[in-house]
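Entry: Reverse transcriptase domain-containing protein
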Amino acid sequence: MALNFIHQHLDSPGSYARILFVDFSSAFNTIVPSLLHEKLSQLNVPDSTCRWITDFLTDRQQYVRLGKLVSDTRTTSTGSPQGCVLSPLLFSLYTNSCTAGHQSVKLLKFADDTTLIGLIADGDESAYRSEIARLVSWCSANNLELNALKTVEMTVDFRKAPAPLPPVILCDSPVTSVESFRFLGTIISQDLKWEQNISSITKKVQQRMYFLRQLKKFHLPVKMLVNFYTAIIESTLTSSITVWFAAATARDKVKLQRVIHSAEKVIGCHLPSLQELHISRTRRQAARIVAHPSHPGHELFRPLPSGKRLRSIRTRTSRHKNSFFPTAVSLLNSTPTPPPPHQRTIAATYRPSQPTCAPTLLNCI
């Protein structure tokens, strides 16, 4: 969604985007149970659940153990325990009321990862800076502390002669400007290209190929090798593949495909290509968005009057055309229409015998 907002906005001439990657100081440790109780009540959470959560977060005893030494016990009634599966959800509910008030500014939150995107047109940054001030004020009122030293900003600007932009001041400190940032595990560059992210992925999977070769030396069955490849190597190869694959260069795609070919030689069976993985995951993700009207990207999948195809998303640049949503709409439109129910029944009852061949990924699994 972040990239879609940026791509759509940059299709307009004379526009640019400023992205503020906000960092909180000990975010989960600053939750105030009484404030959380009020916010949960406003979200119509049952009172019994609110009281249970409040009781869980208050009067918690903790101590520190170092070898045989144990510190005195302290009682705390602030924050949520680190490592608790409930903590990200509680923090999301705690910050639910923090929203952007201007349509040209997008506030995206994923647990304690908060991103403020200013879609600037005609050089007017008043709304963007106003929303930053509102965010600082909201955090101060809700016991959240912004870490100005770790908060960074990235500017995406494709204008021919852009003027130097004034820095953003956060908590009386200028925010550092960066050329790239690892956002939710994916490296985003200010030129919206993916060489740096793909290089990082390639380095990781090449390191993990060593373990696959070691397992092969121990004569593990093909099925176990495939399971290891799927869980350890393919999962890394396909990290955010729906976002970057269509916009990646042919050279980078070949570089990643070589890893798959190497794995095929080690395992001794066919593995899905990078193109196949991208298509399957993009269609699956698009189908999930279409099935959930509450998803913020649901409105981008608009059916034509015939109901058989989706309305294509208009794009002016190749970088927008190769982003997730236009690519997903194109793939869904290219999906063949399923046969009528009676034909599917016939196809299901008639299963010709398969010839004996080399083991494939499906056969291995």
